[in-house]
Amino acid sequence: MQKQPLILVTNDDGLNAQGISVLIKCMQELGQVVVVAPNGARSGSACSITPIVPVTLKLEREEENLSIYSCSGTPVDCVKLAYEKVVHRKPDLVVSGINHGDNASVSLHYSGTMGAVLEGCMKGIPSIGYSLRTRKQECDFRPYLQVVKDVASHVLKNGLPQDVCLNVNFPEVPALKGVSVCRMARGIWQSEWKDTDVPDVYQLTGNFTNLEPEAEDTDYWALDHGMASITPLSLDMTDYSSLEILKSLQR
Amino acid sequence: MQKQPLILVTNDDGLNAQGISVLIKCMQELGQVVVVAPNGARSGSACSITPIVPVTLKLEREEENLSIYSCSGTPVDCVKLAYEKVVHRKPDLVVSGINHGDNASVSLHYSGTMGAVLEGCMKGIPSIGYSLRTRKQECDFRPYLQVVKDVASHVLKNGLPQDVCLNVNFPEVPALKGVSVCRMARGIWQSEWKDTDVPDVYQLTGNFTNLEPEAEDTDYWALDHGMASITPLSLDMTDYSSLEILKSLQR
């Protein structure tokens, strides 16, 4: 008998977020599920790791085909711990999310959801991040479940190219108008600091501007038009077209 | 009279690290310097931000053509704060480092040094990260100063392509054997957790393996052969070659 796929689930909103419980349920339809997720919110943690203080792993629940652990570290720590200290074979898939807040355009660089996905990819595991454009803690995830499962099934069946992972984003709509395979939009965060009552103490905030709102081949365009976006990301960040331009620096 | 270039300096080892003091001195030869750096070590902080607690900015020192601020946040927070709350015009250059420890290959994904560089790039400022392959807190940086200044001067004069920044790494050698403009090597971190005295509490550690040690066009090869590496990085992480492969997911 063929083994069930082994699926590692994590997120950056923490184990108690609604998004991860929805994702766990989706993944249980596709295989054996191991969850290792932060024990609290880790939004904006990107690919950060915990190099100085030790990290705690705690078994929260275990039942047939599902085990759930919490971790005191970052989403990347969760994947690293799961890989070496929890699973007994290499997972077939890493999924992260469903994040409360989109991770389209440059926002992915700050995203702990996508940090975990990049980490899965660095370990040679096909990895997918899911995020929903919402500001709510409680959302209706039903419009997205079919796409969540379709993308995961596709990846379980076909794999992904080496060193490539997926960034999947959903708009908050009652019904998706489509699914777009597309590139990252260019974008910029501005007005990022709010004064507090204390001088020289600031609270991070910010407004995002899509720098190419007319570009139909981008993730932001898809979300703005009621579609899910699927963007393949490369671990290799080398800008190959600049290598020649910089050759004069070679010695 | 032409204005002096305005150079923003930061790092992830904190304001008291030797690497940043060396970098500040180098940059003072090239322009007016503003330093906004973390008030302590932030290694492994990647592109993480501080979304929940407020962040403090503190003027530490001010003299002609040099002002130094400390910040309670991450390297990315430092660049964001400098940009909106410190400088009165857009900096001509962001430099980060000199990191104690290299950020070649996939290590760049975890790097706070490079997080700051990506942030500078996201703000449309030419940005460079410098890192030294060393485990020491006190190092002899003299063999690298000329390249540090040459690369910064080149970028001040010629700029960088849109959405491209530089990752510069140095090997620990008495004299550099050359400077290589090259791509990121493929690599993997393994054996990442050390047991502690407490069960289920682990300390992050790890061994890096270069997955393509023979590839002469990579950063790791350059470092292994006594050369500095200069790798252009792209903010746009889209893997364009996978867009076609994934088209069957489009709806």
Write a short abstract of this structure.
The structure is a homodimer of 251-residue chains. Chain A has 251 residues and is an alpha/beta fold. In chain A, 24% of the residues lie in helices and 30% in strands.
How would you describe this structure to a colleague?
The structure is a homodimer of 251-residue chains. Chain A has a 9-stranded mixed β-sheet, with helices on both faces. A two-stranded antiparallel sheet of chain A has the order 9-12. In chain A, a hairpin with a 2-residue loop joins β3 and β4. In chain A, 24% of the residues lie in helices and 30% in strands. The first copy, chain A, has 251 residues and is α/β, with parallel strands linked by helices. Chain A is globular, with a radius of gyration of 19 Å. Chain A starts with 5 loop residues before the first strand and ends in a 6-residue tail after the last helix. The first copy, chain A, has a single domain (6-186, 218-235), classed as Survival protein SurE-like phosphatase/nucleotidase (Stationary-phase Survival Protein Sure Homolog, Chain: A, 3-Layer(aba) Sandwich). The first copy, chain A, is built from 6 helices and 13 strands. Chain A has helices spanning 18-28, 75-86, 112-122, 145-158, 219-224, 240-245; strands at 6-10, 32-38, 55-63, 66-71, 93-100, 127-132, 164-170, 178-181, 187-190, 193-195, 201-204, 207-210, 227-234. In chain A, α1 (18-28) packs across α4 (145-158) and α2 (75-86) runs parallel beside α3 (112-122). The mean pLDDT of chain A is 97.
